[in-house]
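Replying to the earlier thread about multi-chain prediction with a worked example.

Input:
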Amino acid sequence: MPLDSNHLIGKEALLLLLHKEDQLPEKLRQLDWKYCKGKVGSMDGQKVVAAVETAAKNQGIIKSSLYRETHALYHAILEAMSGVTRGNNQIGTLLRTVGLQFAIVRGNPYKDKEEGEWIAVALYGTIGAPVKGLEHEAIGLGINHI
Amino acid sequence: MPLDSNHLIGKEALLLLLHKEDQLPEKLRQLDWKYCKGKVGSMDGQKVVAAVETAAKNQGIIKSSLYRETHALYHAILEAMSGVTRGNNQIGTLLRTVGLQFAIVRGNPYKDKEEGEWIAVALYGTIGAPVKGLEHEAIGLGINHI
Amino acid sequence: MPLDSNHLIGKEALLLLLHKEDQLPEKLRQLDWKYCKGKVGSMDGQKVVAAVETAAKNQGIIKSSLYRETHALYHAILEAMSGVTRGNNQIGTLLRTVGLQFAIVRGNPYKDKEEGEWIAVALYGTIGAPVKGLEHEAIGLGINHI
Amino acid sequence: MPLDSNHLIGKEALLLLLHKEDQLPEKLRQLDWKYCKGKVGSMDGQKVVAAVETAAKNQGIIKSSLYRETHALYHAILEAMSGVTRGNNQIGTLLRTVGLQFAIVRGNPYKDKEEGEWIAVALYGTIGAPVKGLEHEAIGLGINHI
Amino acid sequence: MPLDSNHLIGKEALLLLLHKEDQLPEKLRQLDWKYCKGKVGSMDGQKVVAAVETAAKNQGIIKSSLYRETHALYHAILEAMSGVTRGNNQIGTLLRTVGLQFAIVRGNPYKDKEEGEWIAVALYGTIGAPVKGLEHEAIGLGINHI
Amino acid sequence: MPLDSNHLIGKEALLLLLHKEDQLPEKLRQLDWKYCKGKVGSMDGQKVVAAVETAAKNQGIIKSSLYRETHALYHAILEAMSGVTRGNNQIGTLLRTVGLQFAIVRGNPYKDKEEGEWIAVALYGTIGAPVKGLEHEAIGLGINHI
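Result:
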C-alpha cells in the first residue's frame, strides 16, 4: 500500500506549476495519468472552484456525468483552497484577491494497483489586497481517491 | 512593490523540498538569503512547531532573543500547518500523523528594497493514519514579514 | 444521477440510530448494502475515530488492506464529528465529553448504478460537561464516495 | 438533571424530518411542546437563517419581541448549519447549494422542570453542486436553552 | 429591546480586567448584578474552561445544579476563548501558552426587563510561546442569555 | 524582552474605545506612539477591513507604499474580526450585522527597544440581527509586529 516514490501525485502536480511545465513526465504519461493546467484570478471563491471544475471536465480529467467524480474533485479543490487561504476558504469577503495557476493530475500514486485512481489539485500563485503588488505567494494541495 | 519573479521566496522554499536540494540557488545565496531544512514526524502539533522553531534558531535564520522574529516565524509555521492539515491544525487528536520535511527561507522577494525581509516556511510530506502506507501527500506554505 | 428516494444512505444510517434498529430494511439488505452499529464514549477525539474505524474493519464494511477505503471512511467520520462538535472537532481539549452511538452504511444511494458505492457515518448521542446530566443531544453525518 | 429519554428534543426534531411527520407525538403536544416545519433551498447562508427565523416567529415558536429568544434560536440555527456544511457555514461562496427541510421544536427535554425550555433546530436535505443530482444528504442539529 | 448604554455588560466585564478593579460600579451592584474575577495560566484549553466554570459556581454566579446555566456559561467561555486564540480555541497543541485574568458578570444589559439575565465572560492577558516574554496581549468576550 | 506593563499596546487600544477617549495618554504620545480611531457599521466583512485600512493609511499610521506594513495591519484586522465574530469572520452571510468602533495603535510595548514597532487593532461594538436592538456587545483585538 505504500506510496510509490516515483509516482508522487501531489509532487507532480506541484512541479507542473512551479516549473511552468506543460506536461507530466514521459513515464507518467505512459502510465496513462491524466492532467491539465489552467489559471484563475478572482476575489470570489466560487469562481476558483468553477474554473478548476470546468477545466477538469473539459479536459476529460473527470467524467461530468458521474457525481462521484465531481464529488472527489470538489473536495480536493476545497482542500487546496484551504492551503491558499490558510484555513477559512474566504477571499473577497475578507477584502483579498487571488491570482492562481492550477494543475490537476489523476493517476495511481501507490505501489498497489488495487489502490486505483486518485486526484490531486494544486494551486499556486498570489494572495493579497486587491491592489497590484500588495500580495505574497500561496500554495495549496488537495488529494482524494476517485 | 511587486514581487520579483526571480526571487520568489515561497517557490524557493518549496523547491528545496520537492527537489531534495541542499541549498538555495547561487544568486540567492549571494543576496545573503538565509535558509535551512529539516524533518519532523509526529502526531503532536506542538512537536511540528517546535522542530521548525528550533531549526530556525539553531541555524541562525531568526534571532532567538527577539520576540518579533519568533512571532513572525510562529505565524508562518501555523499557516503552513493549516495547508498540511487542510484547515484545522489538528493531527493526533483526529487520529492522524504526519511525516514532514520543512524548509525555511529568509530574504526579500520584492523588487523594492524597502520591503525588507520576509520569511517562508514550507512543509511537504505525508499525512494519514498512524499505520505505514495509509497516507497521502500534503503541502503547506506560510509567508510573513519579519 | 439523482438520489433514489427509497435508498437514502444518510437517512438509513440515521434511522438505525434513532430507532435503535438492529438492521437495515430488508430491501436494502437484498441490495447487499452493508452496515454496522456501535458505541463510543470519550473526551478524546481520536478514540471516536478509532472506534468507528475498528468497527468498520471488523465488520467487513471496508477492506482494511486498501487505503482508499480507509481514506473514504476517515473523511466521513471527520464530517460526522464536525456535526457533533458543531465545527471544530474538539472534545476534551474544551472540557467536554461525548456519549455516542454510531452507524455505518455502505451502498449506492443513486438511481444510476455507475455512481457505485458510497459510505455514510452517522453519530447520535450526547455532548456536554464531564458530569452526568450536564449534556444535550448532538448529531452528525458524513457521506463519501468509496 | 438528566435528559428524559422519552422527551428527547433533538430526536423529536429529527424524526419530524426523517419521517415526514406533520406533528409531534401526542404526549409531547399534551406537554405543550411547540414545533413547526418548513423548507428552504438556497446558495445563500443568510436565506437559510432567515427562513428558519421567520417560520419560528410566524408560528409562534419564539417571541419576536424578545431578543433573548431570537438569540437562542440564532445560535441553534448556526449550529445546525455547521452540521450541514460540515464546519464552515459557507454555501454559495464555495459553489454549492442546499435543499433543506427544517424542524424547530421547543420544550423541556430534562427530567427536572427547573431546566426550563430548550429549542432544537434540525436541518435535513441535500448539499451539492448547483446542478440537479450532483448532491448528497446532509444533516444538522443545534440545541440551545431559551 | 435596545441595550442600555449605562448597563453594558461586556464593557463592564472588560473594565474589571483592564482597570484591575475589584468590583462593579455601585449602580450595578444596586441592581443586583453578580460578578467575580480570577486568574488562570495554562497551555491546556480545558483548564481555562474549568477555572472560569469553577469560579462562577463557587462565587454563586451560576447555579451548578442547573444545566441550563452551565450551558449558557460554557458557550460564553468558548466564545471568549476564540477571541484570545483568534479562532481555533487551541493553545498547547500549537505550542503556545496563555496567562489570563477573567471576569464574569451577570445581569440585564437591556432597557426592557423582559430580556432577563445575560452573562458575560471576559478574558484578558497574554498569549505566546511557553517562554517568559515571548508573548503579546489578547482579549476575548463571550455573551449569552442565561 | 518582556512587555512593559506601562506600555501595553492592546490595553491602550481597548481603553481608547471603552472610555471614548480621543487620544492616547500623554506619556505614550511623547514616545511618539501613533493612533487613530474610527467607526464602521456593515453586514459586509470586506467593508470592515477596508474602513480600518483606510483610516490607518489616511492618518499616517502605516505607509501605504509598503506592502509589509499593509500586511501587518491586515492580519491584525482579521484577528480582531475573529474576536468579534467568534471565530469564523462571517457577518452578513450569516444574517448578522456589526456596528463597531475601532482604534489602531502603533508603538513598542516591550522593554527592549530592539523589539521595534508593533500594531494593535481593537474593535468594540455590537453584533446581531439586522434589526435595531437585536444585538449584544462584541470585542476583538489583533496584535502584530510591523
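Chain F has a mean pLDDT of 96.

Feel free to reuse this layout for your own posts.
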